[in-house]
Amino acid sequence: MIVTTKDLFRHAYGKYAVGAYNINNLEQTVGLFRGNLGKFARNEDANDAAKSAPFIIQISRGARGYSDKRMLEGLIRAADEVFPEAIFAVHLDHGTEEVCYDCIDSGFYSSVMIDASHEEFEKNIEITKRVVDKAHAKGIVVEAELGQLGGVEEDVVGSVKLTDPAQAAEFVEKTGVDSLAVAIGTSHGAFKFTGKQGLHFDVLEQIQKSVPADFPLVMHGSSSVPKEWVDRINNAGGKMANASGVDEAQYLPAAKFGVTKINIDTDGRLVWCAIHREQFRDDPANFDLRPPGKVFMEAYARYIIHKNTVLGSAGQLEGVRAMLKSSGGCCGCGCAK
Ligand code: G3H
Ligand code: 13P
Ligand code: ZN
Q1: To 10 degrees, the CA torsion angle through 280, 282, 285, 287?
Q2: Strand, coil or helix: what is 324?
Q3: Beta bridge mates, 93
Q4: In this structure, which residue's CA is closest to atom 3 in ligand 2?
Q5: Which of 67, 119, 127, 229 has the most beta carbons within 10 angstroms of its beta carbon?
Q6: CA–CA separation, 279 vs 264, rounded Å?
Q7: Would you give per-residue pLDDT tens digits along the chain (337 residues)?
């Protein structure tokens, strides 16, 4: 069942973070849905309520252009049918104004991100407000970004500018945005830190104090780039020197300070890369795409279960369903309520 991120944030705020995972293809989609229902091997396996989690599917502009945006939408529609118990939001990741409007008009996305963080403060407000007005008129929620993360994002290599807490308050008030991505030390990609850095909790705490109570904050660039997966890639012929990510032990402390959505893309790519490298290394005569695809879907589902456990979202799905039902929303049975 597709819901808005606002619905998910209402349940999570201050307690845990909802995982926001990027997808590009069929195998990622299947692994993602299975993992969020606490299962990994086959569609017929029973859901595991203790591991099941609400989640956010993110589609970047790059993902929309990889084949055709309608292909990904079709995959998600099919997954919603195959996994009717799942509760998730469909979110545009790092949208421009034009792409936001395309997603809003499509009627399929429940949430869009307008990323005008590279613009001057006033211009960012202006653009974000226009998108918010159009989205809200159709019941779609909006995430914006203030400050700048480092690393590679779409085709832009950026420099870091931490979010100013006072500006965050003004930005939220003037735009009417539903959630805000903040720069607190993370960056996109697999090479986030040199040495032992971490999140700027002092800045995060100030931002939380500045914005309205229970206002959801978003952390981009939050892959943990696990050493295990980097080692597996390198042991199977890869070359990823000095890869490093966010310490998973920092997710829940960040959630306590209002971070309600945590974006993970790179980790999924690492799992994909390790599995495929290993599969072709270990069976060089194979030319069939299905054997590695099958191993990947299972490994990715297991990884999602792990990730949701450290985010605190594992085991929260039935709580979200009950909340939606008690607030007059659909119970997940497909009724039109
Ligand atoms: O923030 C960027 C996301 O990781 C999406 O990456 O543009 O390569 O799909 P992509
Ligand atoms: P990572 O590169 O750390 O996975 O971040 C993904 C992201 O922020 C998507 O918007
Ligand atoms: Zn991002």
Answers
A1: -30
A2: helix
A3: 60
A4: 221
A5: 229
A6: 24
A7: 999 999 999 999 999 999 999 999 999 999 999 999 999 877 667 889 999 999 999 999 999 999 999 999 999 999 999 999 999 999 999 999 999 999 999 999 999 999 999 999 999 999 999 999 999 999 999 999 999 987 655 444 457 899 999 999 999 999 999 999 999 999 999 998 876 678 999 999 999 999 999 999 999 999 999 999 999 999 999 999 989 999 999 999 999 999 999 999 999 999 999 999 999 999 999 999 999 999 999 999 999 999 999 999 999 999 999 999 998 765 444 444 4
List 93, 164, 178, 265, catalytic entry: 93
Does the C-beta of 188 come closer than 6 Å to ligand 1?
yes
- Cα gap 252→254, rounded to integer Å: 5
Interval between CA 187 and ligand 1 midpoint (Å)? 12
Rounded Cα gap, residues 297 and 266, in angstroms? 16
Mutate which of 21, 22, 115, 187 to test ligand 1's pocket (most atoms within 8 Å of Cβ)?
22
For ligand 3, the distance from its centroid to the CA atom of residue 263, given in whole angstroms, is 7
316 sits in which H/E element: none
Question: Ligand 2: does its nearest atom lie under 6 Å from the Cβ of 324?
Answer: no
Question: Would you call 93 a catalytic residue per the annotation?
Answer: yes
> To 10 degrees, the CA torsion angle through 63, 68, 70, 73?
-20
Give, for ligand 1, the residue of 28, 56, 93, 270 to mutate: max count of ligand atoms closer than 8 Å to Cβ. Answer: 93
Residue ranges near ligand 3 (ion) with Cβ within 5 Å: 220
Q: Scanning the structure block, which residue is given the tokens 């795409």?
A: 289
Supply the residue whose CA is at minimum distance from atom 5 of ligand 1.
Answer: 60
Could you tell me the two tokens for 20?
A: 């926001």
CB 319 within 8 A of CB 11: yes
* Residue 333: Cβ-neighbour burial (10 angstroms; 0-12, 13-18, 19+): exposed
Ligand 2 pocket residue status of 221, Cβ below 6 Å: yes
